[in-house]
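#lab-general

N.A. 3:47 PM
ok so I finally got the sequence cleaned up, no stray characters, all 97 residues accounted for. can someone with queue access submit it? mine expired

B.Y. 3:52 PM
send it over

N.A. 3:53 PM
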Amino acid sequence: MTPLYWYGVKFHKRISNLSGNETKQLRFKEFFEDCAQKMEHYDFYKLDHFEHKPASTDRENFRIAVQNALQKPVNNDFMILQPDTRPVDRSMGGKLA
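B.Y. 4:20 PM
back already:
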């Protein structure tokens, strides 16, 4: 059974497509190792609130990550909650719906 809620942390880095395949693979490997190290020291409690990830490229990438973590196909019957450290009043422009 797939857990219903997932804590989603996004890391990103731009890698030039003009570089050769070896250079791109090296940069990807360095980025992956950097992300793994950041997750080892990640403060999961330093947040103000969670944001639900709607349908988007980010959500699809999180779904692929969940599928890889569980090592089985998954559907979209779960929720990705992404932490936001900004106070609600700042991140929403002072408007709370």
